[in-house]
Design a protein that fits this description.
alpha+beta, 7-stranded mixed beta sheet, 5-stranded antiparallel beta sheet, 27 helices
Length: about 900
């Protein structure tokens, strides 16, 4: 069947999308990701761009309207401008921008856009952005926590859009003026009011557990947090003290406000005093893991001893310090008997006591006795969280008494339950104190439930870090700006079963092989949601914990440690899921799949492959799809890459897929390779011309490469057996290598010699004889290159000059592209775009473009060799190239103007 090519199958303003996606990481207040924690969410900018570009026709689909390539390019640029506006965070709810984008969707779909389905909805970014673009959104997920998040984002807001708040404190004049409560502002106001109502009622019940504290002058202060250290008895029988298992005694590292805990040994006991200034004592933690020494006698423990003590119930906790609010910032005070005693409360009557799942990769605390959910919290934390959870049902009754519907009352309860979940995240006994900024680090600072040796108890009733009002404000700010399009549909459903939908578009972000154990991690939140909402949505919370057996991840420990069984489970499950997707989707719109897995395996023949990529691609192709494109979506802030000193792969690769025709032909290995050679090279040239980052090029090459492989029903090996996806990927990588090697032929002979020397030795020493043989083979000489400042060559030793050693001035005679590439790369490292631009502005030949091409090649070499800093340097130059060119052109124009003025004056 003939179909119109969509924009996403031809071209995207990738840099603009990536820039806005990365920028989203630093946007917090009001961002939907702050509604409830979920792992590996897709940025809204990327989701919005992918959906829109999947629906809007590429100009090449309308040759009657855009007959020439120039006209198509011009129209494409017009669409790019719309898309570049659409992905900006500031335009998230800009109605003019959204209306312009929706108009293009309607034009390309004859006024009848398809509904969108995301069968692995997770954190809900894709269904949310579909709804924002005016589509009917369907979200499903097996995980009930994900289902609740999606309901809160796309199902609840449209139902109550424009409705004024029902709480008694809402301003009377505003209540009558319905225009004052546009969108979800009324809903947000009620969430705020009833959240504060909950806090007030909770304080009436348990406020006495959170006393104020007096300083040395007798002035009273509100406590922000209590800082505890776990303890075990010293294994030295002659000592026997309760030794603290503290990883640090530093309370504040802020300049001029340093504070620390000083342990005071008194006989066989230890008490703790807070002191100001520098000079914190060495902590008892001696190494990574459970390795400590007794601060009284110096005896070292073993991890096994601490595990045994903890599992036997003999691990305690001691209060080391109290943090309070003051007019001058954080106030650090020594513990006192009142605060030690009041924290020693009994457990509440009902609390989550389910066992933590076995997950040695992501959940580490069960090894130390914290094996049920109640053990992740102190008794005071349990009391607070159960009190707030129990009050949610009281909110429902209160709202109904105000004359509102039960449905609206229950909707409010969902958001308030999310506030309790946020509080649980910062109010567990694995939350820790950040002594650089004076704040609480939440439980899920990483994608794991860790073990913490010194932990923090937050004061939920303060006005500072970890308080309930802060948690509530995150929810309110988010609810206030949620879109209110067509009411979305959210279901708890596994992706392999038939949901009955037809002729929809699918955009989805499936699990990444074994990267994240979503079900295991989300149990932490499920137990509290279940306590708060079980009576409201009983079907969703009928199980004690999140369903795990059906979860599509390749976790070996669920298969007795078998890698093969885990891989087969994942691939078979994904195959079934994509077969279902194939039965749902309309042929007029491509399917888009996000995937972000990078794992290199050696197959025993010095060939590498990625199991995650292989299994996903295999499932998609076997399910009857052809891959028509791959787009790298870089979603991390640039500073993160710089800080790590490595080249991070794009956070996601978006696979663009179409249904493969039923009568697709069969081809041989030879035909496949010949077709690949013919089509891959121009595709790679296009990618390079579009300035794709070198770090993303290899994954992007999978698109045209697998496009060739997947258009055939089978590719047959010489022996008649079908070629595997792994073999196809390896052939594509070989062709990619060949493409870059062929580019060496376009270099001058001196540069070819330098590339060979770099490949073998980097900037390290090599014997003169070996370098001389290599130079003669390239028809150049070591002496010549040493004279040009390219090489160090003395006393029988040769090596390439590092970028810091090469001359900065460009010599016009006998151009060496290697030298120019190193000079440009060094200028970027040293002076950024301006530095590189000054060099380019002095050159009126095509040499700079050849230098950029060589940077791609050198990146590939460095990446393969594991030279992270080298790879990063070349990647940075290519990414900045458009700016470098633009700046250089401005410099040249300015010089021309000055010269013309001088001529005129003369």
């Amino acid at each position: 069947m003939e179909y119109k090519k969509k924009l996403i199958e031809v071209a995207l303003p990738l840099e603009a999308i990536n820039k806005e996606s990365a920028r989203e990481k630093s946007i917090r207040h009001g961002h939907p990701s702050t509604l409830h924690l979920w792992w590996a969410r897709r940025p809204l900018a990327a989701a919005r761009a992918v959906i829109w570009a999947s629906l809007v026709d590429d100009p090449s689909s309308h040759p009657e309207e855009f007959p020439t390539e120039d006209e198509q390019t011009k129209e494409r640029q017009r669409l790019f401008v719309i898309l570049e506006k659409l992905v900006k965070w500031e335009n998230t709810n800009n109605q003019d921008v959204l209306d312009e984008a929706k108009a293009e969707i309607m034009k390309s779909t004859d006024g009848n856009p398809p509904a969108l389905l995301d069968p692995f909805a997770g954190g809900g970014a894709i269904p949310l952005e579909a709804q924002r673009l005016g589509l009917e959104a369907h979200a499903s997920d097996l995980n009930p926590v994900a289902v609740m998040i999606n309901k809160a984002m796309i199902e609840i807001p449209p139902k109550f859009a424009g409705q004024p708040p029902v709480n008694p404190d809402a301003h009377v004049s505003k209540m009558k003026d319905t225009t004052a409560w546009l969108g979800t502002s009324g809903l947000a106001e009620d969430v705020r009011y009833y959240g504060e109502w909950m806090k007030k009622k909770a304080f009436e019940r348990i406020g006495h557990l959170y006393p104020k504290i007096k300083d040395e002058h007798g002035d009273e202060h509100t406590v922000i947090a209590w800082i505890w250290a776990r303890t075990v008895k010293c294994l030295n029988p002659a000592c026997g003290c309760e030794m603290p298992l503290a990883s640090s005694f530093e309370l504040s590292k802020k300049k001029g406000k340093e504070a620390y805990v000083q342990p005071i040994i008194e006989g066989k006991t230890i008490r703790y005093e807070v002191k100001y200034g520098k000079g914190a004592p060495e902590p008892p933690k001696t190494a990574r893991g459970a390795k400590f020494k007794c601060i009284r006698c110096g005896e070292s423990t073993t991890p096994e001893y601490i595990k045994d003590e903890a599992k036997a119930g003999r691990m305690g906790a001691t209060l080391m310090a109290i943090v309070a609010e003051s007019n001058n910032g954080r106030l650090y005070l020594s513990p006192n008997e009142e605060h030690i005693t009041i924290a020693n409360v009994e457990k509440p009557d009902e609390y989550p006591s389910q066992e933590l799942p076995y997950d040695p990769r992501n959940i580490w605390c069960p090894a130390y006795g914290l094996d049920t959910f109640d053990k992740l919290f102190t008794n005071r934390q349990l009391t607070a969280l159960t009190t707030f959870s129990d009050l949610i049902s009281s909110v429902r009754e209160e709202v109904i008494q105000q004359g509102s519907s039960q449905e609206y009352a229950e909707a409010l309860c969902v958001y308030l339950a999310f506030a309790v979940d946020r509080e649980a995240d910062v109010s567990s006994s694995v939350s820790t104190w950040i002594n650089t900024i004076g704040a609480i680090r939440n439980t899920f600072a990483r994608q794991a439930i860790p073990m913490a040796w010194d932990f923090v108890e937050a004061n939920l009733f303060s006005d500072s870090t970890g308080c309930f009002s802060n948690m509530l404000n995150w929810i309110v700010n988010c609810v206030r700006i949620l879109p209110c399009g067509k009411t979305g549909t959210v279901r708890q459903f596994d992706a392999q079963s038939d949901n009955g939908l037809k002729n929809v578009m699918v955009s989805t972000d499936p699990p990444y092989y074994d990267n994240i154990s979503y079900a295991n991690l989300s149990d932490f939140f499920y137990v509290w949601l279940r306590k708060a909402l079980r009576d409201i949505t009983p079907d969703l919370f009928r199980t004690m914990l999140v369903p795990k057996t059906e979860e599509l991840i390749a976790t070996q420990y669920r298969f007795d440690g078998s890698t093969d069984k885990a891989r087969n489970f994942f691939e078979n499950g994904m195959l079934d899921a994509f077969r279902r997707i194939n039965s749902y989707v309309s042929e007029s719109v491509p399917v888009t799949v996000y995937y972000a897995f990078k794992q290199n395996d050696n197959d025993g023949n010095d060939a590498t492959a990625s199991t995650g990529w292989e299994t996903m691609l295999s499932a998609i192709i076997k399910a009857g799809f052809s891959i028509t494109g791959t787009w790298p979506m870089r979603t991390e802030r640039e500073v993160r890459t710089i800080a790590s000193g490595t080249n991070a792969l794009a956070s996601s690769i978006v696979l663009v897929c179409r249904k493969r025709p039923a009568g697709a032909p069969i081809c041989t290995r030879r035909d496949f390779i010949n077709t690949l050679k013919r089509e891959l090279k121009p595709a790679l040239q296009k990618l390079q011309a579009s300035n794709i980052a070198p770090v993303d090029l290899a994954q992007s090459a999978i698109g045209p490469g697998m496009g060739v492989y997947s258009r055939f029903s089978k590719v047959l090996e010489a022996d008649g057996t079908p070629m595997s996806v792994r073999s196809a990927l390896q052939i594509i990588n070989q062709e990619l290598d060949l493409y870059f090697t062929e580019q060496d032929g376009e270099l001058d002979r001196d540069s070819r010699f330098c590339v060979d020397l770099y490949t073998q030795y980097a900037f390290n020493d090599v014997k003169f004889g070996e370098a001389d043989v290599l130079a003669r083979a390239k028809n150049t000489s070591v002496e010549k290159l040493a004279g040009r400042g390219v090489l160090y060559a003395q006393k029988g030793v040769v090596r390439l000059h590092t970028r810091e050693e090469i001359p900065e001035k460009i010599e016009s005679r006998d151009s060496i592209i290697w030298l120019l590439t190193q000079q440009l790369t060094h200028a970027m490292e040293k002076d950024g775009v301006v530095g590189a631009s000054k060099i380019v502005a002095d050159i009126f030949t095509s040499d700079p473009e050849h230098a950029k091409a060589l940077a791609y090649r050198l990146f590939q070499i460095a990446e393969r060799k594991g030279w992270a800093a080298e790879a990063y340097a070349y990647n940075s130059l290519v990414i900045a190239w458009p700016e470098v060119q633009s700046k250089a052109a401005d410099m040249q124009a300015a010089r021309y103007t000055v010269n013309q003025m001088i001529l005129f004056d003369n």
